[in-house]
Amino acid sequence: MQPRNMSMSGVVDLAAVKAAGEAKAKAEQARAQRQDPANASATAASPLVIEVTEETFESDVLQRSAEVPVVISFWADQAEQSKQLNAVLERLAAEYRGRFVLGTAEVYANQMLFQQFGVQGVPAVFAILAGQAMPLFQGSAPEDQITEVLDQLIAVAEQRFGIVGAEVDPGEAAAPAAEAPPRPATPQELALSAAHDALDEGDLAGAIQAYRNVLSDEPGNAEAKLGLAQAELLDRVQGADQQAVRAAAAASPSDVPAQLAAADLDLVGGHVEDAFGRLVDTVRRTAGDDRDTVRLRLLELFEVIGPDDPRVVTARTALARVLF
Fold this sequence. Notes:
By secondary structure, this protein is of the alpha/beta class. It contains 14 helices and five strands. It folds into three domains: 14-161, Glutaredoxin (3-Layer(aba) Sandwich), CATH 3.40.30; 183-238, no CATH class; 242-324, Serine Threonine Protein Phosphatase 5, Tetratricopeptide repeat, CATH 1.25.40. The chain has helices at residues 19-35, 40-43, 57-62, 80-96, 111-116, 143-161, 187-200, 204-217, 222-237, 242-251, 256-268, 272-285, 288-305, 310-323, and strands spanning 49-51, 70-75, 101-106, 124-129, 132-138. Belongs to the thioredoxin family.
């Protein structure tokens, strides 16, 4: 197993378009609740290792992932290697003192989770951040490589989602931490929040304009770039007749609008490689302004998935071969 460059991108989840902004808000809310004395009894216990079941997955994993990275280790009783890995992960959970929570899921008792995560064998380790799953590694690994992966995960959680697990004494209950009063939101943060709200209400045009407003003042805002690319994608596929779009694309491989529309549907449907392959092939078949139009759309879709995603890296290489 080699440590990987982590990307929270993957199959496009339309419900998670605003995940980064919402996760930051949830993390702030969770920290505020921990400070409230009225919630002291509810927050006093914060176990670093939990047993995950299908019945408790939503409350113990999905909800908790809004305030701390959750690592899930799939294991089986007859797979000794998976039990040994769990022992290492449990010890690391204590050493990391609350920067991540470990959940262990026995595969035969949780067949639905096993299938939903697409686990091919055990041991298999995933992470959940802000309700989104990402694979970490499969099989056993040296401890130094495991800690490198965990360090990457914790960095992604803080940088992309504002999620920072509260420090916990492994042998004691976690006491509410005293924190400084939250700082006022900046104008850019308020504009970004307005964009998220518009998207949440189904106002795609309003969301697109709000994201553009942020980028006009702060062109390098990565969250606004991602939000704009995803909002525009949702706007393009809204109300599309999928059968008609795919039939038109199949009938005219060189029809640029037809191929662009089909690629959007591919991406929204989770067929990321198909979307990229379709547009790379269309670049190969076109020239001039048509070629440039397809190339720019492909770069937009790269933004939706994320520059570090291996499928984006592969598609960029294929695009470069076609262009040069």
